[in-house]
Design brief:
Blueprint: E1 2-7, H1 11-25, E2 30-31, E3 40-45, H2 50-66, E4 71-76, H3 77-89, E5 95-97, H4 105-112, E6 131-132, E7 153-157, E8 159-160, H5 171-175, E9 179-180, H6 183-195, E10 200-204, H7 217-225, H8 227-230, H9 236-245, E11 252-255, H10 267-272, E12 277-282, H11 292-295, H12 302-315, E13 327-334, H13 341-354, E14 358-363, H14 381-403, E15 410-419, E16 432-438, E17 450-455, E18 471-480, E19 483-488
Helix pairs in contact: 6-9, 13-14
Bound molecules: iron/sulfur cluster.
Length: 489
């Protein structure tokens, strides 16, 4: 039987999608990229904010209309959050599956395709719409035979859930309290991925800084096994990075989603001691206003956040940083209830002070069940949109300026795609090839890229042909917008 996975949302949800592929694969299901050929369409949804929820719902409705013979399963955060309501109203879906325990998927599959009825294309309605929303427990992990990232790159989820309870955020309502994977399990997964040729490992969770908190045994196991660390007071994240640094191989590690309030500074000496840890810090500050931060249930102040930024920059001083640069990414939420023009001015001034290389922004979305949903004095949507636009303008100006630092430099680039050069085959112009890739300060999907040009005789660093997943050394000729132009050496 064939299934089609329609993936939505964040990197954490992508890992769940990859696990669902593995779980179905173990039961003989084959993944197809052609929805027409599928007996089962899984919409692995996002339930974070209004626009994302709408997009996932539309996918279910579209799938139902386009593939009447297929079963449509709503999985992911939207199902986790609203399964009982949606099972009454979203008749386009044949079943609903939460993300508390992905290994219970077969129970839903068996209901959708009862033994007596597993002929492709039969879409008889089951008497009652199957709904399964297992309790949120542990951190689902396991085999991921097909990664959804570009070749050479993988996400590694180290925690699930969150205890920070930012007042605007529904994730703790969806994913529950914080849980952390044991260090040895993460090490095993990373070494397997490295042995499979993965060069870039992106560690993810709702908040990496909280790794191991409230779940000490996930760490103490490590301490007991490793007497050297028995007496240490290293943070759980520093212990994990120390263990990762013990792995052999040519790979790179990026840390995504580190809550600035919980940033464990003891990871810095671990990272500066091993150049495979990228000096790339994704710190979602959300606001730079001293009035709005506490309303968001954020403990830090703009001054403290600026202090954190300079501490990190100081730690990665020239002496210890072969990259000669520290890349910061952040995220802002505008239009939060009570946000005045003065508050916003503080946020845009804060953005200019942190001098981030990248940042993203959202307009506050009133999420039921969150504290912020009860707050008044909401700025008009139009005003919020204007503020978001202003932050984007500030950021794109900073990004282009900062990228100039790399002009004339040689960088290693992970190739993601080969691009057909329109001039190819035109005998008048020497056939040079094009490819798209990313270098160390460009995270997957959210940051800019390196547009690569190369002569036919060029190879990747391992001497092999240039193809998705290979690493090439490129001379950076210039900057265009948020991307770099490079020539493979
Ligand atoms: S840190 Fe805050 S914004 Fe992030 S998942 Fe947790 S509650 Fe949500």
């Amino acid at each position: 039987m064939r299934f089609f996975l329609d993936q939505h949302g964040c990197a954490k949800n992508q890992v769940d999608g990859e696990l669902l592929i593995g779980i179905l694969g173990q039961r003989g299901w084959i993944r197809t990229d052609i929805p027409e050929d599928a007996s089962l369409i899984i919409v692995n949804s996002c339930g974070f904010i209004e626009s994302a929820k709408k997009e996932s719902l539309e996918s279910v409705i579209t799938a139902r209309a386009a593939y009447p013979n297929a079963k449509v399963l709503l999985a992911g955060c939207l199902a986790e959050r609203y399964a009982s309501d949606l099972s009454e109203n979203l008749t386009e879906a044949d079943a609903f599956f939460g993300n508390g325990d992905l290994y219970r998927l077969p129970e839903i599959i068996d209901k959708l395709f009862p033994e007596s009825d597993i002929r492709p294309g039969l879409s008889g309605k089951t008497e009652k719409v199957p709904v399964l929303v297992p309790a949120q427990q542990g951190v689902c992990s396991g085999s991921r035979p097909q990664l959804l990232s570009f070749p050479g790159s993988a996400y590694v989820k180290i925690t699930e859930g969150c205890n920070n309870h930012c007042s605007f955020c529904a994730i703790p309502l969806i994913r529950g309290e914080l849980r952390s994977r044991p260090i040895h399990e993460i090490i095993d997964e990373c070494s397997l991925l490295i042995s499979q040729g993965i060069f870039e490992l992106n560690l993810i969770g709702q908040d990496l800084a909280s790794y191991g908190r409230g779940n000490e045994d996930a760490v103490s196991g490590e301490r007991k096994e490793n007497p050297a660390e028995a007496g240490t007071s290293l943070s759980p994240l520093a212990l994990l990075l120390t263990a990762l640094s013990g792995l052999e191989g040519n790979f790179r590690i990026r840390l995504l989603y580190i809550h600035p309030d919980n940033f464990p500074r003891d990871i810095l000496p671990v990272m500066t001691a091993d150049f495979r840890f990228l000096p790339y810090f994704d710190l979602p500050f959300q606001s730079g206003s001293k009035a709005i931060l506490p309303a968001m249930n954020r403990k830090g102040t703009p001054e403290q956040y600026l202090g954190l930024i300079s501490d990190i920059r100081r730690s990665f001083s020239e002496a210890v940083n072969p990259y000669g640069f520290v890349a910061f990414r952040t995220t802002f939420l505008v239009g939060f209830p009570g946000e005045t023009a003065e508050d916003f001015d503080e946020t845009s001034a804060f953005l200019q002070s942190i001098q981030s290389l990248w940042s993203g922004g959202f307009i506050w979305s009133c999420e039921d069940g969150t504290k912020a949903a009860l707050l008044k004095k909401r700025p008009p949507k139009k005003e919020a949109q204007t503020r978001l636009e202003l932050l984007r303008q500030i950021q794109s100006g900073m990004t282009s300026e900062k990228l100039l630092f790399f002009t004339g430099k040689i960088l290693d680039v992970l190739v993601e795609e080969l691009v057909l050069n329109p001039e190819e085959g035109n005998n008048d112009i020497p056939a040079s090839r094009l490819a798209i890739g990313r270098t160390w300060f460009q995270a997957p999907e959210v940051d800019g890229s390196v547009v690569l040009q190369y002569e036919e005789d060029r190879t990747s660093l391992d001497g092999g042909p240039i193809r998705p997943g290979s690493i090439v050394r490129a001379y950076i000729r210039g900057v265009s917008g948020v991307d770099l132009d490079g020539v493979v050496q």
